[in-house]
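Students often ask what a holo structure prediction actually looks like on paper. The answer is less mysterious than it sounds. You provide the chain, you provide the ligand, and the output is a string of C-alpha cells encoding the 3D arrangement of the protein together with zinc ion.
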Amino acid sequence: MSTHPHHRRDGRAAGPGIRAAPSLFARANAFLDLVWEASELGACMTPGCTDCGALEFRRMLATADGLPPDVPLSLHARMQPGPDRVASALAELDFDLLRLAPRWYDALDSALFHVRDRGRLAGVLESWVRRDAVPTRVLDLVLFRHARYGHPDERVADLWIDRCLEASADTGDEGLVESLILACPERVGADPRALRAALDASRRSSCVRDIIGRIGDCA
Ligand SMILES: [Zn+2]
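The corresponding C-alpha cells follow.
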C-alpha cells in the first residue's frame, strides 16, 4: 500500500454539475453519508496528515458517535461510551458503494483508526472477513495498518492474514504480495500457494524482488 499526500480543499474541484449526486449512494450508510458530506466541505481525510491531522473529518466521525463537540480529539475522549454508529456502518458497508465515494481509501483509513481507538475494530473486521468478496485494496490496507501489528486482537489478525494469503494466491496482486512479505514473511513461506504467488510476482515485479532481497529468501 502507499501513503497519500494532504488533500487540501478540493471538494469542489470537479465544478458544478459534474459531481455525482451523493444522495444516490450515501443515505443507505451513515459512514458513506459522512464521506460525501466531508467531500462537500472539502475536508482533508488523510490519516496522519502532517498539515491538518485530518482534524475536521475526525471531528465528524467523533460527532457521529455522539461525542460532544467540545471534547478534545484525544485517545481518552474517543474511548468514551457512545452509540458507535461509525463501527456499525462500517460492519454493514457495501464495498461497491464505498468505491463510488470520493477519496474512499483515505476516508476508510481514517475511519478504521477511529473505530480501533473506540475498541470496535474487531467487530468490523469479523463482519468483513466472513464475506465472499473483500476488495484487495481493503485487505491490504487492514493488513498493513492493523493486522500485521496484531490489531484488533491476535485471533482476528490471524483470520485477516489467512484471508490475505488466500487472496494473494488467487489474484497474484503485487501490492498485496509486497505487504504480506513485509508484514509476515514466515507466514508466506509456510503457505505453499501464497509462496508460489510471491515467487511469481517477484519474476514480474522489481519492487517485489527488492523486498524479498531485503527480507531474505522466504522460501
Ligand atoms: Zn490535511
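Confidence is low (pLDDT under 50) at residues 10-17.
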